[in-house]
Amino acid sequence: MIPGRRLTGSPLRRCPTARPTPPRSPLTHRGLEPWRPAAASRAPRAGLVQPSAPESPARAGLFFYNDGCFATTSLPMSRPAAPTPSESSLTVMLWVVATGFFMQTLDATIVNTALPSMAASLGESPLRMQSVVIAYSLTMAVMIPVSGWLADTFGTRRVFFSAILIFSASSLLCASAHTLPQLVASRVAQGVGGAMLLPVGRLAVLRTFPAERYLPALSFVAIPGLIGPLIGPTLGGWLVEIASWHWIFLINVPVGVVGCIATFYSMPDSRDPAAGRFDLKGYLLLTVGMIAVSLSLDGLADLGMDHAAVLVLMILGLAAFVAYGLYAVRAPHPIFSLELFRIHTFSVGLLGNLFARIGSGAMPYLIPLLLQVSLGYSAFEAGLMMLPVAVVGMFSKRLITHLIQRHGYRKVLLVNTVMVGLLMASFALMRDNVPVWVQVLQLAVFGGFNSMQFTAMNTLTLKDLGTGGASSGNSLFSLVQMLSMSLGVTVAGALLATFTGVMRSVTPTHTLPAFHATFFCVGIITAGSAWIFAQLAPDVRGSAKKTDPSERA
Fold this sequence. Notes:
By secondary structure, the chain is mainly α. The chain folds into three domains: about 80-275, Up-down Bundle (Growth Hormone, Chain: A), CATH 1.20.1250.20; about 280-335; about 340-553, Up-down Bundle (Growth Hormone, Chain: A). Helices cover about 65% and strands about 5% of the residues. The chain contains 17 helices and four strands. The longest helix has about 40 residues, at about 385-425. It is found in: Cell membrane. Its main location: membrane.
């Protein structure tokens, strides 16, 4: 029976549960076809030239980041795969996606405590190993914009399977490296695979699970991603102590083999037939800009690099960013629309994230080096010293919610950013004669304020994005997050190399003063980013758990 209609021989009264017949429209019904609600329009996916076909509606989504911060916002809902997988297949798929996220976040931090051991094995200075960290995070930043298009075009199962395969194979290559260039090249390949694990896995969950199960499923996926950064430095130091640095990469291989098999049998190979053409020109301009700027800053750390080459790379990178801005104004569907920057909280949050995270990205690289190179800690001891940073950071996230609701984003971020910068600069006071409990307390306090900074910046950036800009805005924010982590290590390496060269002629124990000067400069950079958050309106308030504008106080 057609809802809301009278058929011959049927009673004249309307069925109590029938819906009223909507006006005739190409988007509602044709002839006697059953009525379906008109599909809501959605904004085009970042970087894709979309056809004019109607799309499916948006629903609430949960975004999570490598620093363990959560935020809810609108998420365009892609078409689910036609066949419904069994419950066991859904469970296996969740574990596969969660494991992939764990591998990605683990390898972002596990190498930090192993850098001195790697340097000794490869015949390099431990203060020149920043390229191992930069290669991974910068590659992930470059690959983030293209991962969604690859999944839409080639299917989630194929792309996720390829991501695990690339990640595992490159991990084996990392363990087999005999020179620093070989290790850096392998880390680039590892970043290619790692960049696709989270976004493609999240997309597979979105397309497979019904709306009422989506948030619990994605929360389950997020938990291992929180554990990875927490145990990464300690696990890396422990593996170096009992075996060698090679095992921080070799542990990925058996996990990857099992993940490939499970992906092949459990993950639906869904794709979006309406996926448009990828904005290759815009993507290449952004890629050239990110790589050129990073290489120019890394060239400052390499004292043998010609200063003219550093200047040329910097000019090339900045010119590429300017060219993208000019291109995005004219392009109908750029990879990242400049219209996003009309949202004031998004602009301030994104710029503040970029500069504040430079310091936050430098600290996980600098602290283990300081503890091992200058203070005589073993790799495992240095890893244990990093635990208070992560543990206290996990618990402090609850506090920031109440602070923002009471005082607003502007006051909280102004005070907290300055505090984080001062705490970073306070590591210039760390010496071998400072008691261990004081060092642990210093690390714990820094971890708490740094974690609150992440949560406040993340939610500020995304909270006013509507349905139309949620997908593109979140993708751009993820790119900036990874880029700033890479720039943080790059800046720290450049400062450390510069101060090491200067201090060598002043004192024989030149590494500790060089570390102190580097921490002081990183702290000043971070505290200076408070000026960006000062541009917020004084009454900007809201929950640190919600990003929907309707949830603001």
